[in-house]
Specification:
4-stranded antiparallel beta sheet; ABC transporter transmembrane region fold; alpha/beta
């Protein structure tokens, strides 16, 4: 078994080293257990020799020796497993925390390359496989110690026979190494496909209402069957590769016994060894047989763990490009004047979203962005809080390039209400309070009153302490949206971003939410993404986008009079 390299060295340096004292105790206990196991061979030789020489003392010291060795091995194994196990679960938790922190602050471009469910697989299946493989490595080290110590003892009994047995077991090195190389490749593919499968299942269940309405059960089943069959083929290949190792070690163990019997029989017939030596060698061979098999299993697990570590380190090695400049200044609260200065932007896949985008937005102005799907509306909302950085030009807030200020101070200037009504697991009060971390209960309730949601909340058995899950499944769409508005009111930011906040509501709820939004937007610079053109008729300025460029600007009446894209969209929505 070759020593772990690459990912495991990094795992040791960065994540296991803090627990080296705990691991050292485990390794010391491992050594005690290994020496106790190896001593069985010598002990049996002594006991049989005592029987052959009719030594009466063997009656008491023989059983006592076996008992001492058994207790020593048991205690050594116990402390080895507890110390290493506790160290590994601590390191596992540290890895998960580091991965979560990395993802929370990662560039949006990285996060959108993989489904959230597939990313979550790295926290569960991959991390579990890492811990399992490292634990197996320690067990493999213990097995190696037992083998080495036992071989040393066997050399003192009959070195000629012992060397012959070592030669037999050395035949396993080449085939096991070849199997290990294939295991790493297949294991990596299996982990990747497992993540894809988890994402597909989550997607299917998340859209189950639509699927059943359109009778897409067969389509989903066929897709799932393809994914499951692909994963099955990889798992079968993995099982076959892993299964090759055990028979190799089993066959070699049998060959070793045959060699032992042949050599000892020959040497006994020539008076070159004794029955006590034979029994000692047989005991030693029995001691090393299981550890030798375990070393083969360890090799297989090492390769699978390497593949899992690769996926974990991919997350930890994500490069974050949206960072504060070394000389970034804190942006003071401003008036909310925004300028897009010849902005160009392309997504990481090369898709151009904005080009030659020039726009001045005065403080307190309400500006609506209109255009067909893919025109660049959402990109504007992503660039302003620096979820992405511009490819060309600059975005200025109150005359300051947003790349020259801290992200925290920049984002404190903005409040967002989107069509998704994002809620987090916690209490209703907490979800409103996320708008401003230092807000107290009175301020939270005042914001709820302004959003016309206080009466509903106080009517709940636990009021503002009522817990909700991330989906807010116990709340209606209008109630969730009012909580989002209350959060934005509490933030009291000079810039308000409204991303189609009423698109998912019925007419009655929309009218009520519109009234709350009108109250919220007073005195603030308000940017609106709108598909329902009736909701932006009173906007100070409507910006019409097409393929990332501004093609029209003006008020509702002006744009209808001029004709063009806006007039066409309006005619489509209102039948001319």
């Amino acid at each position: 078994m070759s020593a772990p390299k690459g990912p495991y060295r990094r795992l040791w340096r960065q994540w296991l080293r803090p627990y080296r004292a705990m691991l050292a105790i485990g390794l010391l206990a491992m050594l005690v257990g290994a020496l106790a196991s190896a001593a069985y061979a010598k002990g049996i030789q002594w006991i049989i020799d005592g029987f052959e020489t009719a030594n009466p003392d063997v009656i008491w010291w023989g059983p006592l020796l076996v008992l001492v060795l058994t207790v020593s091995k048991g205690l050594g194994t116990y402390f080895f497993q507890t110390r290493t196990g506790i160290a590994l679960v601590n390191a596992e938790t540290d890895l998960q925390k580091a991965m979560h922190k990395k993802l929370i602050f990662a560039d949006l471009a990285h996060l959108q390359q993989e489904s959230p469910t597939a990313i979550a697989t790295r926290f569960t299946a991959d991390i579990f496989l890492v811990r399992t493989s490292v634990l197996q490595i320690f067990k493999g080290v213990m097995s190696a110690l037992i083998v080495v110590a036992t071989v040393v003892v066997m050399l003192t009994i009959d070195w000629v026979t012992c060397l012959a047995l070592v030669a037999v077991f050395s035949l396993a090195v080449l085939p096991v190494n070849r199997i290990g190389a294939k295991l790493h490749k297949v294991s990596r593919s299996t982990q990747d496909d497992l993540a894809s499968m988890t994402g597909d299942v989550s997607e299917a269940l998340g859209g189950i209402r639509m699927a059943r309405t359109y009778q897409l059960e067969s389509y989903l089943s066929d897709n799932a069957r393809t994914v499951f069959d692909t994963l099955l083929a990889l798992k079968v290949q993995l099982v076959r590769l892993e299964s090759r190792i055990a028979p190799i070690m089993e066959i070699l163990s049998g060959a070793a016994i045959a060699v032992l019997l042949a050599i000892v029989a020959w040497r006994l017939s020539h008076g070159a060894t004794t029955l006590a030596n034979f029994m000692g060698l047989m005991t030693g061979l029995g001691v090393v047989s299981q550890p030798a098999r375990n070393m083969g299993v360890t090799f297989a697990m090492v390769k699978q763990g390497e593949a899992a570590l690769d996926r974990v380190f991919e997350v930890l090695d994500m490069e974050t490009t949206i960072t504060d400049a070394p000389d970034a200044q804190t942006l003071p609260r401003g008036t909310g004047a925004i300028r897009f200065d010849h902005v160009g932007f392309a997504y990481p896949d090369g898709t151009t979203a904005l080009q030659g985008f020039d726009l001045d937005i005065r403080a307190g102005q309400t500006v609506a962005f209109v255009g067909r799907s893919g025109a660049g509306k959402s990109t504007i909302f992503n660039l302003l809080p620096r979820l992405y950085d511009v490819s060309e030009g600059a975005v200025l807030l109150d005359g300051t390039d947003i790349r020259s200020v801290t992200q925290k101070s920049l984002r404190e200037q903005m409040a967002l209400v989107s069509q998704d009504s994002i809620l987090l697991s916690g209490t209703i009060g907490q979800n409103i309070g996320f708008g401003r971390q230092d807000a107290g209960p009175r301020q939270i309730r005042a914001a709820a009153k302004a959003a016309a949601i206080d009466a509903f909340i106080t009517g709940l058995p636990q009021g503002y302490d009522t817990r909700i899950d991330a989906a807010g499944s116990a709340l209606s769409g209008g109630q969730k949206q009012r909580l989002s508005i209350a959060r934005a009111i509490l933030r009291d930011a000079p810039i308000l971003l409204l991303d189609e906040p009423t698109s998912a509501l019925d007419a009655e709820s929309e009218a009520a939410i519109r009234e709350a939004l009108d109250t919220l937007s007073r005195g603030r610079t308000t940017l609106v993404i709108a598909h329902r053109l009736a909701t932006i008729r009173d906007a100070d300025l409507i910006v019409v986008l097409d393929h990332g460029r501004i093609v029209q600007t003006g008020t509702h009446d002006q744009l209808l009079e001029r004709g063009g894209i806006y007039a066409d969209l309006f005619a489509l929505q209102f039948g001319g």
